[in-house]
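Quick check before the chapter quiz. The format below is the same one you will see on the exam, so make sure you can read both the input and the output lines.
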Amino acid sequence: MDKKFYISTAIAYTSAKPHIGNTYEVVLADAIARYKRLQGYDVYFQTGTDEHGEKIEIKAMEAGVSPQEYVDNIAAEIKNIWDVMNTSYDCFVRTTNKEHERTVQEIFKKFYDQGDIYKGEYSGLYCTPCESFWTESQLVDGKCPDCGREVKEAKEEAYFFKMSKYSKWLEDYIESHPGFIEPEARKNEIMNTFIKPGLQDLCVSRTSFKWGIPVTFDEGHVVYVWIDALSNYITFLGYHPDGECGEKFKKYWPCDIHLIGKDILRFHTIYWPIMLHALSLPLPKKIFGHPWLLFGNDKMSKSKGNIVYADDLVEKYGVDAIRYYLIHEMPFASDGTFTNELLIESINSNLANVLGNLVNRTIGMINKYFDGVVVDENTSEELDLELKNIVLNTKNIVDEKMDSLRIADSLDSIFDIFRRCNKYIDETMPWVLAKDDSKKDRLSTVLYNLVESIRFGTVLLQPFMPDTADKIFTQLNTDKTTYDTLDKFGYYESGSHVGEAQVLFQRIDIKK
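Here is the expected output.
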């Protein structure tokens, strides 16, 4: 099978437990990965943790444990949250993996041998939490432009990567590959703010701390974050700069999508492409910088005390309600908002009312009027054709939106089927048909059309809300759950028995 698809998230930094904003990215990637699998692609989905650096060395010291114990703890916590969110990753990477460390050392040495890396001295203003050096002019009100914290003077011997050497090549590449960086606004920002003014050479080793991958040919130096962390996308596929690469690498590279937060866009769209080019490797097909999930109007941060964790929400509201909210409430290019009120409103109106109520009523009516048996009596009316057209068209609409990474819009289009079904119930009024014996065939057809429409929507819903989709299929008592059953209306077998009606989502009393 030649339809392969490789998607990655950024790897989560093991300094602290990830909040709901960090979790959004892995759920989004999961929906894309699952949708591609539904379409028949051979998918490889990679996520994981970034585990080296000064910040971790300091945190481990404060906690009175070794850096390795510290990252083992946090990595387990991150993996647990990814699992709680029911994400279907194929590989959970950790940058303290010995094989990864060896390959990073080989990559560093190769860059050095071919003259891309040179030794120098770094002096500048350093922000420890962000692990970034800044010049005076880049500071905002004398503080770190990324996190707003204090910076300190730092001076140390370091190796530098000659980014400036590749500046023109990168500019030309981005200009000639329009879909490489998305959304468009992010691409313009990278071009105008960083690339066109000319790239600075990049500090790629450090001597002021020990918790990192040692540089093999110069004792006291550890590989600084970018070559270590970014390389994860190829090292775990079995890439080797000077030997035979693994089968996974040959099969899946180049990556189809790197899905990352907009705050780390420049590392992925400047440093990473240049590193790959210096290794004579093809570049990823797309780097998508997704927006942030804000708490009300603020970025979530420990110092503001407005951090919300996914596992706490799941315990209260269930995993699919949180998956739905994260995927549905995030616009394509602008920041989304999280508040408890918005979450509850979303559960009540979309999940309990539109979807839950529809499935419940439909199964309930079939059990009440036909002892649970669904028969298509083929009494076709204008209304039915309109419903069928909407249902049949949805697959193409969702395909197109997923391809352009408008994931929230895709989910909305699937819910259009459920909204249309509710309207169809109001229009056909099955409870009125049930009172007239001569309308029995019509009632039977109406209920068949509803079941088949719900089945259609549920097949498409699987990548977004997998558990809910399974529950609906169980109530419909159908095994017609695959993508290839969406090419015509009528795969649900006439004469089938539905199961018992179950409540999918409870309405939540906001006062409580």
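If your answer matched, good. The first strand starts at residue 4 and ends at 9.
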